[in-house]
Amino acid sequence: MKFASLNPKDNSITVAIVGCGGFIGSHLLQAVLERTCWRVFAVDLESYRIQQHLSNPRLEFLCADLADPLVVERIAKFPVVVNLAAICVPSRYMSEAAAVIRSNYDHPARLADACAKSGSWLIHFSTSEIYGKTLADSGLLDEDSADITLGGVGASRWSYATAKLLAERYMAGLSNLDWTVVRPFNFVGPFMDFMPGVDGEGIPRVLANFSSALVRGEPIKLVNGGVAKRTFTSVHDAVDFIFCLFANPEAACGQAFNVGNPDNEISIAELARLMTEIFAEVKGISVAEIPVTQMVDGVEYYGVGYEDSLRRMPSVQKAERLVGFRALTPLRDVLRESLTWFAEHYGIVAE
Ligand code: UDP
Questions:
Q1: Is any ligand 1 atom within 6 A of the Cβ of residue 212?
Q2: Are 316 and 326 in contact (CB under 8 A)?
């Protein structure tokens, strides 16, 4: 690793952010522009979330993706590469498994090869989904010792996790690559995913889907009784974590990190109830005015091959020990911020 730390005041540094126009990328870009003097080489196929920054002289935006080998070579010329690009829409894991695998394995592997050759530090976003088909009583998921079960080959829900896990193993296996892997535990916040039929198709992840239903006055759909549990993490905490990496490259290099908030664990059924309550507060209406939640079967809703992880509880000691990070934003604050944003951003479109 060639950096002791990345000085925020050093205006000779350029960070490449792949997937910069996405949910996490847009928040990261904003923070880099605000907190540092660095330049950003941003790559994405879409840019509507970062529209306000496109004229910033410290930003170069390239409308492209990692499918193009010439783009990969260009990205790897920069000393630090953050890769957030991925197909991560759950309904597509079943219907487009091959494309999901290409996006989550082939492209990152090619980027890893290029970074190994050029000597760039690759900060690659993986997923907490690599922990697979965890059970209701599964305990803390430790980055380096958890055993992983990913379901049969017909259980295409795991196409995404399988590809992400293989990409991690590939990076760890490249002896000359400086790599860091990040495993997000249900990051949420403004600009997350999309509203189906408005700015995206398919079924977005749970927070965006529940928010869409609430904004549209439609029933929330609870898959398989909503017994699965997740720990939701503010995207702002996630951005702070990336800055902890920038400040500690040597400690971060060659490591995979869970980034999550164990204090924010909730079942999906309880999430539906809490989001309904907060949405009523935000809109100044009574909960009785909001349609009753509907139960749906996972395979009927998502398609054949759907399975679920029942509990995803991160061990977060490693991030605290090696780079001094702990997620702090409480669940209620995270949900209120996201729902308020959804109501304001999509309210006019939906009505
Ligand atoms: N889920 C749900 N209704 C929805 C969307 C998701 O009940 O409209 C459930 C889903 O079955 C899973 C959990 O919410 O148990 C989280 O799903 P998400 O798609 O956000 O991603 P995951 O955390 O599984 O990767």
A1: no
A2: yes
